[in-house]
Amino acid sequence: xxxxxxMMLLMLLAVGVMGISLAHAQEEKKTPAEKKPVPPTSQxxxxxxxxxxxxxxxxxxxxxxxxxxxxxxxxxxxxxxxPLPVGVQIAVLAGDPNNAAxxxxxxxxxxxxxxxxxxxxxxxxVTVISGGLHVGMGDKLDxxxxxxxxAGSFLSLPAKSNHSLWTTNEETIIQLxxxxxxxxxxxxxxxxxxxxxxx
Length: 199
Fold this sequence. Notes:
alpha+beta, six-stranded antiparallel sheet, 24% helix
């Protein structure tokens, strides 16, 4: 009888161990959706919110494969780049004009705005989006020698060719594209806004 009781006890113990092992194996087989979710930490929640915002911003400005798309209302205008005279605004559409890579940007030039004689370190391609742009070649801004380019015009300006730009009685938006870094070198270094006091 004692042998039988010991045998029964061992069998019950073995069945119990097998049951626990089987339950553990079934828990391991569950998909993540069937397992009890672990609440995210506040740091994970903050990261998720940042990722969601970035995804929304990316979706607004881009489609697939890195295509950048904008409507005029999507453009974010900021104060123009430092070397240009005060008053111009810039919106970068693609790339980074400070890096050695392709870029596209727009400049919004106010009425009666002048960019004195300068050259660029790389070729630049300009499309007049709205208004009218005047361009003069040479070492000095001379409105009598300039050419008017209305909206829809295109210019290709080779690197190191001195030229001046100006507007007359209307705001003008131009689009520039080329390969960076985009650098402006003034014929007269004193014309560089970085060395002029801002009035």
